[in-house]
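Title: Prediction job returns without error message
Component: structure pipeline
Severity: low
Priority: P3
Assignee: unassigned

Description:
Job completed but the reporter wants confirmation the result is attached to the right record. Sequence as submitted:
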Amino acid sequence: MSPNGDLGDPISYMALDEGTPVFAADGDEVGHVTRVLADEEEDVFDGIVIAHHLGHDAFADADQVAAIHQRGVTLTVSGAEAQSLPRPSPNPTVMEVDPADTVSSGFGATMRRLWDRLTGNY
């Protein structure tokens, strides 16, 4: 199958399955999807990790993904360019800081408690 073949209907990145074939802009199959990178809470698509036919994983940024269909993803880069896509880097640890964690006493703590009561967050 190639991008010129029937890849099915366009779909959202949220419905993209692991194992879906990935094609370069010139029709070369370069691998398959191993992971979709996105912030689902913000509805932001970051890109895909591809199990490349060269034997390693590669990262295609959202800007390098031309289309997502039921049976295939097409990239904006050629097969030759897809060979030099970067390898994915590990995601940094994300820590969520609550404002209450930064204010322990004094006027700030009093204001934090007042705000929590006003907003029902207590």
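Comment from assignee: result matches the submitted record. Helices lie at 79-82, 99-102, 106-119.
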